[in-house]
């Protein structure tokens, strides 16, 4: 009861005091003073925008603001500034552990930005000191070549390189082969997975435009107000500019392309993609399936009545035990780009992460044995256990396959 009274009194004090607080707390855990600011005017605007007169929601939001303030007072990692969209996401988190993890993520992001800013400032000061140094000349009329001095070459700035890459992507929009990124799986992903999918899509755009023959990327079934697009706008600020070389559609790919040319790439089907067809429009599902591992892409392709194919990964690569054979979209698009140019699967599959392959596991075990010879018996014991488990699972699948197939295309 006493805790509830103190909490209510703190909330009332939080409502009444319209003062700008600025404190510096020195915490031995972080070794450096932590500065944070609590601005009442900004908080009141956030409360009005998010709650819109809802008393219960306003009470809950103020309690969460007080919870974050207590974390700052205790010296625990919490960001100094929280925007409206941050509070909007915090309200959707049910447990304190989820809120704490999200605040730690925001705090680490803020610290990384501050560290990068400090490094840039240090480099700027270092360059300023170097420029002030006088270089000795053998003769007074000698020319000095080097950085910040005379040069034989024209400097190509980052903006010029960026414009050149965008021009290549614009050429692909006119003459390149189309490829579809299906963004209809956002409802099957949690917030963290949607943010990760937006990060992968950022890598896809960046790697595609610097390729020798880039694809004409079409993002279909896009929810413009979803978490995926919100994060993608943060990653690419110029995404919605009229000159930006990327096609974004809210419509389905069936409304844009002829159905007979579409092939859905899914790891759950039987048909393997043996050769690359330059007249085919391949579809890749934009989904991070760390939690939901159901064959959703197979079900989507069967519902739309499309042809399906999978990459011949088992034919060209030896996978490590327990490795997930579902590749990210930032791996799939470079594989198809190299396959389109070279037609060589060994060259195209170099984009598969090495951590999934048996070769990497063997090299790690050899390194472990060399560093600790006593671990040799333990490693071989684990190998025998994995071998026995694989034999048992194979026998179970063989018995079950006599009754029904594990992934029967006609039963989904």
From TrEMBL:
Residues 165-359 form the SAM-dependent MTase TRM10-type domain. It is found in: Mitochondrion. It comes from the Eukaryota. Keywords: Coiled coil, Methyltransferase, Mitochondrion, S-adenosyl-L-methionine, Transferase, Transit peptide, tRNA processing. The gene is LOC106124369. Its main location: mitochondrion. It comes from Papilio xuthus. One of its GO terms (molecular function) is tRNA binding. Gene3D superfamilies: 3.40.1280.30. The lineage of its organism: Eukaryota, Metazoa, Ecdysozoa, Arthropoda, Hexapoda. GO terms for cellular component: mitochondrion; nucleoplasm. The keyword Cell inner membrane does not apply. GO terms for biological process: methylation; mitochondrial tRNA 5'-end processing; positive regulation of mitochondrial translation. This is RNA (guanine-9-)-methyltransferase domain-containing protein 1.
